[in-house]
TrEMBL record, chain A:
Chain residue ranges for the region called Disordered: 59-142, 154-287
The protein, known as: Immediate early response gene 5 protein
Pfam families cross-referenced by the UniProt entry: IER
Biased composition (Polar residues): 244-257
Automatic annotation (TrEMBL), chain B:
Superkingdom to which the source organism belongs: Eukaryota
Signal peptide limits: none
Name of the protein: Serine/threonine-protein phosphatase 2A 55 kDa regulatory subunit B
UniProt entry tagged with the keyword Repeat: yes
Family under the similarity heading: Belongs to the phosphatase 2A regulatory subunit B family.
Annotated PANTHER family: PROTEIN PHOSPHATASE PP2A REGULATORY SUBUNIT B
Keywords recorded for this protein, A-Z: Repeat, WD repeat
GO molecular-function terms, A-Z: protein phosphatase regulator activity
Gene it is expressed from: Ppp2r2d
Gene Ontology cellular component terms for the protein in this record: protein phosphatase type 2A complex
Species in which this protein is naturally found: Heterocephalus glaber
Amino acid sequence: MEFKLEAHRIVSISLGKIYNSRVQRGGIKLHKNLLVSLVLRSARQVYLSDPCPGLYLAGSAGTPAPPTPQPGEPTAQPPAGWGEPPPPAPRAAWPDTEPQPERPAVPDAPRAVDPEPAAAVTGAGDAFRGREEDTAEAAWGRVDRPRVAAAVAVSDVSPEGASVGCPPTREEQPGASPAADCRCAPRPAEAEPSAPPALYPRKRGAAGAGGGHAGCPALCSTPLKKPRRDGGEEDGEEEMETGNVANLISIFGSSFSGLLRKSPGGGREEEEGEESGPEDAEPGQICCDKPVLRDINPWSTAIVAF
Amino acid sequence: MFSGPRQRGLRLLTHAEWCGVPSEASVLLCKTVSMRAGDLAQWFRCLLHKRKDPSWISADIISTVEFNYSGDLLATGDKGGRVVIFQREQESKSRPHSRGEYNVYSTFQSHEPEFDYLKSLEIEEKINKIRWLPQQNAAHFLLSTNDKTIKLWKISERDKRAEGYNLKDEDGRLRDPFRITALRVPILKPMDLMVEASPRRIFANAHTYHINSISVNSDHETYLSADDLRINLWHLEITDRSFNIVDIKPANMEELTEVITAAEFHPHQCNVFVYSSSKGTIRLCDMRSSALCDRHSKFFEEPEDPSSRSFFSEIISSISDVKFSHSGRYMMTRDYLSVKVWDLNMESRPVETHQVHEYLRSKLCSLYENDCIFDKFECCWNGSDSAIMTGSYNNFFRMFDRNTRRDVTLEASRENSKPRASLKPRKVCTGGKRKKDEISVDSLDFNKKILHTAWHPMENIIAVAATNNLYIFQDKIN
């Protein structure tokens, strides 16, 4: 249990750092963010592997398995799967969104163009969204912070993204973030070379979904939180935070796979701009190509979907 | 152990003064003590450069310190993009005791903050590294870099000026040619020494990520610059082109697992360089093997001790600095808690490991919270490669004598350098009863960190940067 709390705490701190790195002068430092994400992954593994029969764990560990095998729910793995690649099966559902290059067990599905996963993800995302609306929202509230981190140039996104469960705020943010995200995470290469403007909304959805897909796992796990949440508001929030964070981590779990994908397509201008200057746009936000930031974008858009 | 005090009057400068900003200054008298050869504890002769007013501005934080090849010049770069060069006083009969004092020689603004409009990013003007070029004529050249741009600066002296131009007045106004009735030959007249710094080359737009290292090759014609994912090779004369010699950027950024943290050319073999990674590994590359040195020639890694695994194992194993020994036979790496000396002929493990502040291992979580765990400490060799030095917290810095296996902790602080006080060794109490004069781990000030140190290439003179203050310590053997 102590490990779990410790891990949770470390995760919160790490997310805070990622968020703060956004406002640092000189751009986001790739090295530091890489290290922070490694710590996040370690904390997540510990968090998930701690066989503490604690509240959340009962929820997170148990529920993920029984309920519908949420596709792409990496954390749905029973404790035994810590640090190990999630089963290829669930993964297969999101071949493009969560490839796991360093895990030989999982076939490294070729990265499809954005629209593809976007489509796939969107559908799933929607399904998820509908289900875990309330808990997800609260959960994502927590995620807002890191998400915000992705938007370097976002001025309208206020740091109070830390305010968990603040729908109005979130709604505004997502609106801003995708655009900002696009700006800040230009990935010409990945940013769908074939992303026609028409795809924008789709991308956004995809990003949302992708993030949502990233977030979906979050959603998937949130239901677990649900019962717990009913028990006590505070505890519920705490759990949701944890669960949410755990999902965030699970996303990182596979190194930087999946989410990093299309960063939320973002504005058309961005897309086109990105395509034109891949090398330059890379660091976009310099090291903004941190997966951490990436997957955060999707979540924001997912929140918008709500 | 220590000889009697010898009073010294010192001209004290503050970092702000160096940069032209007036501030209060105080003079410190330091004593000199004899130092037995190899006795690291006998540092003295503190030439204290310290700002009296504690409310310094962050732009004054020193970000790099480097002696030139002869040791006569010491360059410092700060967070505000300024470079301050100190020059060692020459011995002279009139001031027999002034030998060894470093005084400000030149100050100039090397880099300015820039804004990358395309990416909506501000580029910091902080000087990340300064490297001197070997001196080839009367002028001095150095390379200074911020996150994105490297500049070659020429520092030259001017102590004469021409007088008696025909077409110009003494004021500089042009004379009417018709008024000139006689011609004269201009003559050179002495003037007050003026040191000018002018940018001779600007090497820009070659790095997508933040530049962390530059290193001048032993051929004196090329140099490398390294950022998080790439290393470029430049020719000092050519600014519009550079060769990429290392590229560890994965095709899919999501697979990124490590970044380059430091790189350096071998001191004698112009085809060899090393670069360290955030995973605690060092790769030695030979540029003769291929144009793109993605495949290393040697790979140095010490197996991790599984018993000391923690959340932060990866962070503390990240190498923050790598330096070749002057001999070229060894290299030294600095990670968060230790300094390791590697024999280039043995890749499996270092030949020496020195713990810098092992007592911090149990505090990694707090250090992670306050970001101290990300501090990048540098390390340096002495001229003979018999000792190594690196910094720590609380304005402590550590020296390790490789021959006697002794080490010492010293403190760079004003209080510690009172007049007639010698630099005495410090000790951190790691547990149990705290002895007198020991400092407990919990009372260490983590805001006072010594990240940058430099050792004179030939003599026992060290420069230690403590936030915005530069300390120069020197020993003198009686």
